[in-house]
Amino acid sequence: MRDMIDRILDYASSRSSYAEVRFTETESSGANIRNGEFTGATTAVDSGYMIRVLNKSIGIAYTNSDSFDDIKKSVDIALRSSAREGKHSLNTDSFGKESWSARALKKPSDVSIEEKVSLLKDIDSLMESLGCGVRINSLSDSTTAEIYMNSNGSRIEGTYSRVALFYMFGILESSNFEQSTGEYGSTAGYEYLDSLNLEEIISDEAKVLRKAISAHGVTPGKMDVVVGPEISGIVAHESAGHPMEYDRIIGREAALAGESFLTGKDVPFRVGSEVISVIDDPTIEGSYGHYRYDDEGVRSRRRYLYRHGLTDEFIHNRESAENLGVKPNGGGRSSSWDVEPLPRMSTTFIEPGDYSFDELIEDVNDGIYIKSYTEWNIDDVRFNEKYVGKEAYLIKNGRLGDIVRRPTIETNTINFYSSVDASGKDLKFFAGNCGKGDPEQAVPVWMGGPHIRLRGLYIR
């Protein structure tokens, strides 16, 4: 494979000012169970090349052929595209030569499909025993090997595995329905799922649903709010990560994933209180979004998106970095060999502070604690947003009170972050698959944060 990449790169670079080749091979499998019924399992191997060249503009082509003659035809397509006048360019730096791998103690290839289905059946049986009438369980894994080379000397090779579990269950009582979802994932092996106490997690969630389903709502009004890591995580992802992806700011994603409320703003721009800092960090090992090098051969690093309430650093791929005149920062990600790397998040979270949970609530006289959400919503520019609580409790005189049903935060990004006056020291992450692009790409991410306290939010 390395010899073939050398041949492709030699051919492409002799006809362009710059060329790069990425080969990706992914073995994947998955299984699903719905309401106790096995609905299918899949295994697949997918591989191919992305070739990108630069002359007057960028040219790009994809092929999964093993024939060099066929591959040359694909390169020629990219070369013809690059010969046209255009405004698009690429950063062409080299990031040297390195091989890297993510640790996986129990590799996906070492776990049979029968074991995977058995795990799902056990989870489904547990949910059924808890009285859950609607149950969906899905398991997936992948192992990827990638080689990236460019004409300026980069040669980056990486291998990594990812595993993920998704579940949803619902309880119906007296014509009222409540549901819970869970998504867990890691750049690791099946030892990650073994480390989760799924029985306890699911049992606790079912108990909460049973209490919430018959609880009363809140009296609408402004009040102090403490939100849990699940909510601070989705907020970080949606209202910091997405609007700081630079292709959204310049409108390249406008008709696809949306735009950014930061378009046209002078930076740094104040988005919140000094308590708030939001980080995107692909270097965190074990994260579902972990990688040492991105899909453009750029070394990953921690990026402050918001720092003490001000915008700080955008997420870039090679193209957007060149557009702004800055160095790329390891944000170029693609979901497979046959799509281009876009500026994407990885592990996005609100930076923790120094407060314990008890300290956060003890200074709230009349408020609410919203631990988790059952629904969320945000507009295309990532500004107006809504979060509906799943597990939530009244706070009276610094103590947790009765459980309440579906308290709703309706606010905007600046108001949310500006209302934060304290951040907890507990940091927790949740997995997800983030969609973007055309054709749409879903890439694995982690999102998280600590408990945070907000003053004077409107709750209904």
Number of helical regions = 10
Helix content: 10-25%
The largest sheet is: 7 strands, mixed
What's the assembly state of these chains? single chain
Rg (CA only)? 24 Å
Number of strands: 24
Domain tally:
2
Task: Bin the strand percentage.
Answer: 35-45%
Shape: globular
Low-pLDDT stretches are none
- What separation lies between the terminal Cα atoms? 59 Å
Q: Based on helices, strands and strand pairing, what is the structural class?
A: alpha+beta
Mean pLDDT score, rounded? 97
Question: Please, could you describe this protein's structure?
Answer:
- The chain is of the alpha+beta class and 460 residues long.
- It folds into two domains: 2-212, PmbA/TldD fold (2-Layer Sandwich), CATH 3.30.2290; 221-459, no CATH class.
- 22% of the residues lie in helices and 39% in strands.
- It is built from ten helices and 24 strands.
- Strands 1, 2, 3, 4, 5, 6 and 7 form a seven-stranded mixed beta sheet that branches. It has a six-stranded mixed beta sheet with strand order 19-18-15-8-24-21.
- A hairpin with a 5-residue loop joins β16 and β17 (384-389).
- α1 (2-13) runs parallel beside α2 (68-82).
- The chain is globular and about 70 Å long.
- The mean pLDDT is 97.
